[in-house]
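Please check the following.

. . .
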Amino acid sequence: MFLCFVAIEAPSRFEADALRHEKVKLLSAVRRIEGPEARWHMVAGQYDGYIHEPGVRKESRTPTYAAVRLFIDNWRWQGVPFYLRSGKGLASRVSEIVVQFLAPPHNMFGLPAGKSLEPNRLSLGIQPDEGVHIHFETKVPDRGMELRSSTLVFHFADQEAGALPDAYERLLLDALSGDCSLFMREDEIEQAWSIIDPLTRAQEDPAAPPPEIYPAASWGPASADQLLARDGRSWVLKTVSETAAAPGAVLEKQPDRKVGRR
C-alpha cells in the first residue's frame, strides 16, 4: 500500500474508484521477478531465537524479515529503484517512507575537497510518529561554499490537542461511512500477490539458502545492507521518529543515483 501511495499518478478525482484504479495501474506496472534472479533482488531473515518460540518447528525456514528491490516499468518511474523492508524482532516498531531526490546532473558549486553534495530527502512518518521531515542542504553564512544539512519538521501531534485516532479506528469509521478509499479492491489484491508470489517461491525453493539469522532488537540481517550497498546506497535509519531508527525507510546519500522508498 505504501508503494502505491508514493508512486501512483494523481487520480482524476478524489474518490474511492478513481484512487483504486490508479493503484491497480501502478501495481500492474511493477516488474515481476522470477526464479533465481529473484534472490538477487531480495533478502530473507529470521531473528535469533525464533525457532525456540512456542509452536515453531526447530527446522523452520519461515522468514521473520524481508527486504526487496522493486522496479516500476512505466514512463515516470523507469529505472528508479524502490526498496522495501519489514520484519519482526527489530529494534523498534516504526513505519516510515523516505523519498530521496535525484541530484542535479551538474554541480555548479566549488565544494571543499572530500565534500559531496548531500541529496535532498522527504521523510514521511506513518507510525508511531505521524509527520513530515524535509532534509536539505543549506549554505553556512560567510563560510564560502561550506554546506550543512538542515531539516524542516512537522508533527501532527504538535497540532492536535488530544490523542490522534488509531489507524484501525479510522478504517472502522471509513467502513461505517461507506468510504472505500483505503480498502484494497479484489483486483488490487491479485496484482499485489502476483508481485510477491514469485519472490516467495524463490525463497521457499529447497535450493535457496535459508533465511539469514539476525540478532533480536537489531535492524535485520547484514545482507539487507549489502542489498543496497551493491547500488551504492544505504538505509536511512533516523528520519521522522527522532528516538528510533526506521525499519521501512530507504536510501542514504548517493547524489549520483535516483530515488528510492519504503
Remarks:
- The first strand starts at residue 42 and ends at 47.
- Confidence is low (pLDDT under 50) at residues 242-262.
